[in-house]
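Project standup — Tuesday

K.O.: blocked on the structure for the chain from last sprint. Re-posting the sequence here as requested.
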Amino acid sequence: MYRSRKPVNWVTFRIVLVAAVFALGAMLLMVRAYRLHVTDADVLKKKAEKARTRVLHLEARRGMIFDRDGEQLAASLEVNSICASPRDVVDKAATARALAEILELDQKEVLDKLVEDRAFVWIRRRVSPLVAGKVKLAGLKGVFSVTEFRRFYPLRSLAAHAIGFAGIDSKGLEGLEFHYDEDLRTDPLPVTAQSDALGRPVMFASVQRGPGRRDLHLTLDRNIQYIAEKELDDAVRKEQAQSGSALVMDADSGQILAMAVRPTYNLNVFERTAPDVRRNRCVSDAFEPGSTFKVFLAAAALDLAKADPHETFNCYKGRMVYKGHEIHDVTPHSRLSFEDVIVHSSNIGAVQVSEKLTKSEFYRVLTSFGFGSASGVDLPGERAGLVPLPGRWSALTKANIAFGQGVTVNAVQLAAAFAAAVNGGTLYRPHLMWKMAAGFGETIRENRRVPVREVIKPATSEELVRILREVVERGTGRSAAIPGVDIIGKTGTAQKADPAGGYSKDKYIASFIGAVMSTKPRLVIFVMLDEPVGPQKTGGKIAAPVFRRIAQGIVALYGGGTVETPRLMASADPDTSAMDTTRSRSIKLRRGPREGEWIVPDLKGMTMRQVLDVCGRIKCDAAFNGAGLAVGQSPKPGELFKEGSVLEVLFKGQSS
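H.V.: unblocked you, prediction finished:
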């Protein structure tokens, strides 16, 4: 029996099929959603975070440098740097054109950076607040600014060769900035950057807190440093010398209180200065010391009991033939005692004293004083100088060394050795670091005096002091004498070696090394003028007077008393560091009636750094004169001031 088939209801079939497809799709979406929100949630979250977030490593604030009284010698100020995210820049040509105009850069140079397939590029670093404001107002997509730090030296050229400088990435490049770079430099500070709805990078808080800052406190005394620089500057100019050096050292500890070099330069614009000018001649230049070396000849002869202070020597009226060579004295003498050989600086007498010493004895004493090896001073680039090994001495070497030829020394080395000769016989390692402190002031480590060795007996040192006192009272060093002040010293005049051989007939190094024995601590002062052009070229005539003026300045400041305690200039305010963190924040800045105008605040009593902070807030450039604390300004307080103008500020308290 035939049964007819029921016709297919295609409408229902299609509905069911569509429903099944939607159900399957819904199920797949649910599975996918489950995976996105549950199974793979952490992985996908990290990928998304990475896609929209990048970490920029920006430099943190470098540690400050202070003198022994806490006056700032180097600090780091906040500045803006212009950056870009090339991937976010839409119109690269137009953006490059706008940036080149604002930043005064080459348009092609900027465009080359913007076409790179990178997430971050520097456009220009360390720009003024005014320039940073212009970039912000331009509203360039993918271009932004970040905060960095620029090294600032408030006293500009004061102690430039000792302090040195740090480069654009806050890395020490010269001087103490280089030597203590690991202490002063802090690790880069990681900062997150995310894009907002318009694709513009937004800077957020640092990923971690910046490392603790470490500050360097020096043994330098800016008052003594200023005196040494001023007197050296005058002498180099007057004598038309090629260069000059002056050093003040604590004879009883090796602390360096002043280190002056001429020519000098402004640390804030060090890149404009030739490398030769930036060279610290106190450690990097080795020179023949001339007759100042007779101090150590006398020390060797006395300590080894090879000479009696009253023993006399035939000086042949200023001319003696020694092993086929002529030796001359500037001033002829018939006979001189051992003491007077040093007092009147007789080369002929010095040669005869040296004959009483064997080569090994003389060499042993000289190397014990530190000659021929680096002094260990905490500065880069020290040249150790040269004392030839006795086995290489010719028939004339010992005689030449007796009056300071055939050996080379540097200024720090010579000052440290002289200090040992007059302080009782102890050689101390010279140094500039007093202590390293944390940002809140607690001491991390301290540089105590380091005795290297006992060089000569205390009795020998006492006898040397007596003889060197006679040098100043009645000998070649009379120009160094100060009435009523206990001064000792020794003159030196050395012919410079001629590259063609022998010694030059018209190029000299004039020097004087001495000590002020009536101060506490006793201070060694060394002065050297290289290639003076004037009619006088001897150390007694042109270097000893510089010593006297430096010593007079120190005695006038400290009255022959203790050097470590007084604060003598207005800029040496014990509350300066406290003001630095509070005054600039508490000052109230008021805007003018029109956009871009400010009412000039009263800056009186503020430090340079505080004034710079104010200038950054009102987007102006600054012109400073003098040093210390602000005492005058133009425009005056209360006047209207336009952004981008120059604010002139006069500082007093220490001339610089």
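K.O.: great, moving the ticket to review. The longest strand covers residues 503-516. The first helix runs from residue 10 to 39.
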